[in-house]
Amino acid sequence: MAAPSGPAAVSEAAATPRPEEGPVTVEVNQSRDQYGKPEIQLQFTNSSGNPVTVSMAELASPLFQGAIRWEPAGGGIELPPRQPKSLPAALPEPRCGGPVGSPPGEEATATLLLAAPGHSQARPVTVNAGDPFGVLQRNNTELCLTAAAAAVADIALRTQLEVAQDSRTAVVRLVVTPRPAADGNRPGEAADSLTIRSVDGTPLLAEVPGDPWPTNITVKPGDGSAQWPLRIRPARCDPHAIAEDKVGTLLPLHIVVGPLDGRVKIAADPLLRAELYDFVTSACAAG
After folding, report:
1. Cα dihedral sign for 234, 236, 242, 247?
2. pTM recorded for the entire structure
3. Of 257, 261, 255, 253, which Cα lies nearest the Cα of 100?
4. How does pLDDT run across 47-69, given as a tens digit for each residue?
5. Cα(166)–Cα(286) distance, rounded to whole angstroms?
6. What are the beta bridge partners of residue 28?
7. φ and ψ at 26, to 5 degrees?
8. Distance separating alpha carbons of residues 210 and 270, to the nearest angstrom
9. Shortest CA distance to 280 belongs to which of 202, 228, 214, 210?
């Protein structure tokens, strides 16, 4: 009887993975332009001497509630021998509230549908997935911290940028809007407060000397909405500052929510991002 194929075959195999030595190895990574997104890269490397086609891939990790899935637009992707290819995959909801790190024996596994040249029938293969840079743990930590903070307050950057007359500095406003005190949450679902320990600079934006950014801001549900002005200057003025920017408009906040302690990146919306790029260009030109 022919082996099953298609999404059902991947899901069935992923439910009870039996890692083996397959012709394709899988490694997890994340490019800089994926920071601030729930997205990673799956790097496939064909370790055999012949091309193989990958028509579906699922990554199972105890750090996430569902499978991390890659699906081609159509027909799969051919992997030449020894040549790695990296493909984007969206992250599902994180699994929060458990111990930090993967329990022993519960590393990520990848299940792929593979077909060799001349074979139309794909077969599922399950292998251990490498994560040498701790991408899955870092994203789990950031996503869980972001969710915990969002249960206490909405944190955003005000769209309008206030540029000084000399164009050398500007003010972007950090807006914090706490949730209502009676939000319908059951006890234990949300922390009583959050604290913004500090605001960090980015490769594009820096603090103005003598005008420090705020620290140790404590926010509780039921508090009134508040804004904090952050006076900024360009962190760099080389010709490639904007052209090569990936994370310059993602403002990192050091946040503590209950037992969670880490950094959350607050993204500028498209309009503010464009204004920040214009500001850096003008400020650098002004000297």
Report:
1. negative
2. 0.78
3. 261
4. 888 888 888 899 999 999 999 99
5. 8
6. 42
7. -125, 135
8. 29
9. 202
